[in-house]
């Protein structure tokens, strides 16, 4: 779902003057570069990895997806600014989704870099390990879809992922679990790790207040709204957590947004206010549907709403997006 601005797929980033997903190592501040890594067959196009140089080596904010094309491009982009994998000392991963976490763990194991992740992601990692080693009778997410009245969508989703099991090697446990808010020193910089649950239970953003930038992960995206509730095992009240986390970011100074998906954006305050207003509007639409229909499943309510910036009917979306909507 987009909220204002232009679609992420067509956005130009001010640091490069080009489409935000174009390959390269783009300087966003002194000692900070943005490296977009590809996400094949994904509407998001790419994930931004941020390279922060310190006196003792590199800290990377997120790692990318552990696929050959992403690894090769990260290697190429690092070399273009005079570094290699061996210079990476630490990964600060915003959350446990594969496009952020898996390449970090693979490179961390190979080169000895520390991988840090929010402790709220521990249940998801444990579940992924069980699924990869022993399999599961059914994904907890599919079970939630069936409870929501979306059994047909769950069946289509399951058929599309038949036989796919996570590789435990890509989902190694981190070297450091981050608990609460804390600080990380990166050379002369101080990064404030701020717990921002919602997109996932253990999501973190990292604020460099002296530089005036926010490494926002998937919490504050400049042109789209982050998916909420797509976690395994499912979280309780993730939207409420997300909105409370937006309010936490609003308590920080107004910072430049360095997002995981999309172009660099000038104001965290402006975007947080847009996201909060958007979700208040959507909640009002949900309440209107419930008042008109009475006690119904979330699938029924979802079908009453418009989706994407073009207000498409839910049934016009792909199966993945329909599952997210329900």
Provide an overview of this structure.
- The chain has helices spanning 68-80, 98-111, 122-134, 140-147, 151-160, 238-251, 268-293, 298-304, 319-325, and strands spanning 12-13, 18-19, 26-29, 32-38, 46-54, 57-61, 88-92, 114-118, 176-178, 182-186, 189-195, 204-208, 213-217, 256-259.
- With 326 residues, the protein is α/β, with parallel strands linked by helices.
- The longest helix is centred in the last third of the chain and has 26 residues, at 268-293.
- Mean pLDDT is 91; it is low at 1-6.
Task: Please give the order of strands in the largest beta sheet.
Answer: 3-4-5-6-7-8-9
Our count of helices gives: 9
Radius of gyration, whole Å: 19 Å
CATH topology: Metallo-beta-lactamase, Chain A
Strand content: 15-25%
| Shape field | globular
CATH class: Alpha Beta
Mean pLDDT: 91
What would you say the CATH architecture is?
4-Layer Sandwich
Order of SSEs: EEEEEEHEHEHHHEEEEEHEHHH
GO molecular function: hydrolase activity
Keywords: Hydrolase
Protein name: MBL fold metallo-hydrolase
Domain Metallo-beta-lactamase: 46-261
Task: Give structural attributes.
326 residues; alpha/beta; Metallo-beta-lactamase, Chain A; 7-stranded mixed beta sheet; 5-stranded mixed beta sheet; disordered N terminus
Describe the secondary-structure layout:
Blueprint: E1 12-13, E2 18-19, E3 26-29, E4 32-38, E5 46-54, E6 57-61, H1 68-80, E7 88-92, H2 98-111, E8 114-118, H3 122-134, H4 140-147, H5 151-160, E9 176-178, E10 182-186, E11 189-195, E12 204-208, E13 213-217, H6 238-251, E14 256-259, H7 268-293, H8 298-304, H9 319-325
Parallel strand pairs: 6-7, 7-8, 8-9, 13-14
Antiparallel strand pairs: 1-2, 3-4, 4-5, 5-6, 10-11, 11-12, 12-13
Helix pairs in contact: 4-5, 5-9, 6-7
Domain Metallo-beta-lactamase: 46-261
Protein name: MBL fold metallo-hydrolase
Keywords: Hydrolase
